[in-house]
Amino acid sequence: MAGPGMLYVTMQPSEGLSAEQFHEWYNNEHGPTRLRMPHMFGSGLRYRATDSQQPHFLATYDVTAMALLDTPTYTDLRAHRSPREADTIGQVDVDRRFLDLVHTQHTQTQAPPFVAAEHLPDADAEGLILVSVEISLKPGVDGADDAVVKWYQEEHIPMLSRVPGWLRSRIFRTPSAIEAGSSATAQQPARLVALHDFAKDNGLGGQEHEAAKSTPRRGAVFAQYIATKTRRAYELFYVFGPAPRDLHSLSKLPSAAAFTAPDGSVATVPGAASISAHVTTADGLGIPYRLEGNPAPGAPTVAFCNSLLTSLHMWDALVTILKARRPDLRILRYDTRGRHAVPADPPVPATLDMLADDLAVLLAALHIQRLHALVGVSMGGATALNFALRHPALLSKFVACDFNAASSAANTAAWKGRIAVAESGDAGMKELAAATVGRWFHPHTMAAKAGVAASMRDMVAANSVQGFRFSCQALWDYDMRPAMPACAVPGLFVVGEGDANGALVKAMDGFRGLLGPGGVGAELKVVPLAGHLPMCEAPAEFWEAVEAFL
């Protein structure tokens, strides 16, 4: 199998293709489709030229093994393009190169150490400089390839490493080994592509750089082995991953540009700008999410973690309020583990740590470095607290609602009984839904807001039985109370006054003082005329309870 390398793609959109359409298609469909195959693609970066030459745009993908680009897994992507992709790509002049990695060297002793752009916060990655140098070798000169590579390794890269801001140099060979047998490439002369990464502030054109370009050995190598050389400089402007997230470009498109992937995996709505897609966890679980709200790339993000048996839509009423009252926020909702069937072979019961790590995976896929806030209820409330304990660097504050800091034997027995109901037959989940909503909701909700109760019964009844069985076990045996005093993330606790007939108000009041060092504790807000899901039963009153904290 061919070794690692790069898919190197230059692009020049036609004048008739709007910049927003080009970028939104690439960032939300084309790029993420490839990055959802991590066994093949390790990164996806987009650059724009710093000069006036065409093509203006470059995309690079680090490839784990170049032979994978010759398999149906990759080739079928092009053969089964969506109609939108086929239309858009028809308006772009594309030059696609397969490059085999020959040599790489990056900063090691310098401080700070080298970090690849895909692992940097967007604000740090954007603006990094890439210098691309393509060399064609003189035909018929024995050893030209090896001689030029040796010069790079022994002299040129070591001298470039002295240029202020130098980060990394890589040497690639093209045509790639996987193309060598094709008639289109068999007669092409060997070429080398050198890619040099520099910081935004750098010494390109300075004394050290000029010294690296004017040695006697360089002159001899060029005279003896090199036929032509071309050089382009680019700046990084977008890092994409497996999860579409470009609300900015999407918000500038007309409503007619709404898109749904043929397999339903991605749906985008322009204007108000929302993206519905999914990420896949390490154990193969697909987690649907919705990203909406403020389309600015750097907008602070508030995330919502739903309760067991509900979906991300349980937050609909609250999100409507949030969009109106806090247009500065970007909003992330997702279906927590348990909503859908879990990966088999065999299914593994969930834990609170798994639930917290699922959110960390989602944030990484969306390039969200730190949440402004996380709001969770019931199992989502326990997840919010555990996320604050487990991933404090990813979170500024959290709101944990209607949850317990520790499980009990009585609750474990109750969960086992509910599993038996759900698995009792075709109508088992509907029976569980009726009992659950009756237990969750305040009598006022059941009497005065029958539509809310009916909608919640339908949502619960649509839950995966298998997902429920294996995910409710996260609530069987846990105790976060010993870890709560070390929590460095400020939190707010909220509960409906009628949850468990008032028993949960007393329970949460009992452990709220454990949060944070020095007995700082968490404030407890009680929402009137609400039960287990106050944000569904009384969204306006719930917003009043959390508005100041958020």
Number of helices: 19
Structural class: alpha+beta
Q: Quick one: how many beta strands?
A: 18
Radius of gyration (CA) equals: 28 Å
Task: Tell me the span between the first and last alpha carbons.
Answer: 52 Å
- Tell me the CATH architecture of the largest domain: 3-Layer(aba) Sandwich
Task: Give the CATH level 1 class of the largest domain.
Answer: Alpha Beta
What is the fold named in CATH at topology level of the largest domain? Rossmann fold
CATH homology superfamily name of the largest domain: Alpha/Beta hydrolase fold, catalytic domain
Inertia-based shape: elongated
* Major β-sheet annotation: 10 strands, mixed
How many structural units, i.e. domains? 2
Question: pLDDT under 50 segments (min length 5)?
Answer: none
Strand content: 15-25%
Order of strands in the sheet with most strands = 9-10-11-12-14-13-15-16-17-18
Helical residue percent band = 25-40%
Q: What oligomeric state do the depicted chains represent?
A: single chain
- Average pLDDT: 94
Structural summary, described in words:
Belongs to the AB hydrolase superfamily. Keywords: Hydrolase. With 550 residues, the chain is of the alpha+beta class. It has helices at residues 19-35, 72-79, 83-89, 122-125, 144-160, 207-212, 216-225, 247-251, 316-325, 352-365, 379-390, 409-422, 428-440, 443-448, 450-461, 465-471, 503-511, 534-537, 539-546, and strands spanning 5-13, 41-49, 57-63, 92-106, 129-137, 166-174, 191-198, 226-240, 259-260, 267-269, 274-280, 286-293, 301-305, 330-334, 373-377, 398-401, 491-496, 523-527. The protein has a 10-stranded mixed β-sheet with strand order 9-10-11-12-14-13-15-16-17-18, sandwiched between helices. Strands 1-3-2-8-5-7-6-4 form an 8-stranded antiparallel β-barrel. Helix 5 runs antiparallel to helix 7 and helix 10 packs across helix 11 (379-390).
